[in-house]
Design a protein that fits this description.
Distance between the termini: 61 Å
CATH superfamily of the largest domain: Glycoside hydrolase/deacetylase
Number of strands: 11
Bound molecules: zinc ion
Helix content: 40-55%
Number of helices: 12
CATH topology of the largest domain: TIM Barrel
Order of helices and strands: HEEEHEHEHEHHHHEHEHEEEHH
Length: 367
Amino acid sequence: MAQSAGSATALMAACVLRQGGLLIVQMVKQVLKQARNSLFAAIALMKIKLKSSPSLVILTYHRILPGQSPLRQTEQPGMIATPEALDMHISLLKQLGAEFVSLDAWLDAQRQKKTLPRLAVAVTFDDGWQDNYEHAFPVLKKHKVPATIFLVSKRINTPWQFWPEQVLDLLISHAHHLDHDALQWLRPYLGDRPTSKQSASPYTILQADSVINRLKALDDHTIETNLERTRNELPALSQADLNARPLLNKQELDAMLASGLITFGAHTRHHYRLNHLGNPSDLENEIAGSRTDLEELDLKPVNIFCYPNGDITGKGEQLVQSHFIAACTTERGWNKTPINPFSLRRFNFHDGNGSTPLSFLASLGRP
Ligand SMILES: [Zn+2]
């Protein structure tokens, strides 16, 4: 008895020591992260203050959602920033002397060899989410800051959900269906998690995020077709909130265009990643077609293209260059003049890298 009490005490002591050790490791990691962020933020401040030749920094966002929005439950973490963070980014850069410009106007000025601001900042939003109107537009109006929104032309005025959000919803709200035959196509991408009935608990956002990244091995059309077939065979998956409309509608687009602050760019017709489109006519359809669609919707001028997922191919690039005057990539970095307008680098901001002034500046200073 005394011996077992002794070994229980030793076990408890070992547990406490182990927990203490883990806590110290976590604290050290935190301190190192702070030190790294401080260093990169200092580099960003030096770049902002000391640069002599004109530079262009492009800030990119996808969704702008308040911290308490239920829509955050079914979205990838790298897609969301809060309206407060957007407000802070603009205020901070203005205080540091940056001039906010419309990307179209800046490119025009470069083309015409006009004098460019020493530090110009352009704001862009990808995909055309409804929350851009609801939560970002008021912040842009408050600061009189122009922005470009890249639209997926065939999804305007539709209740369309992009496939990553459909997959997130499936894994988080319908994981108990994963053993159904209709979801057999998805199993190779689920990773290590067993899919037996007993363990079909909801995925965490991070687990679902990994599944989405693995699924990118397939082309978008195949994923969408599989999802559609799955929904037909498993109607329980389609009980989505009918009031939810993820993307901007025409009325919202018109209101933003009329403000004079917002310009629109093309982000393909269906958000298909170009490196998965083997057929030249499909490429042409997605690239040139998206511009035609937006112009027919009277959302002119549509001068800039944005590559879905940043995926570029030689043929796609040629087509973009013959139909647009510039293109945004997902390459990170500052744009130094003279800039190749078809390789515009951007900084993508979300909760994870822009929720505090320190993390925001560190992202701008990181090599
Ligand atoms: Zn996109």
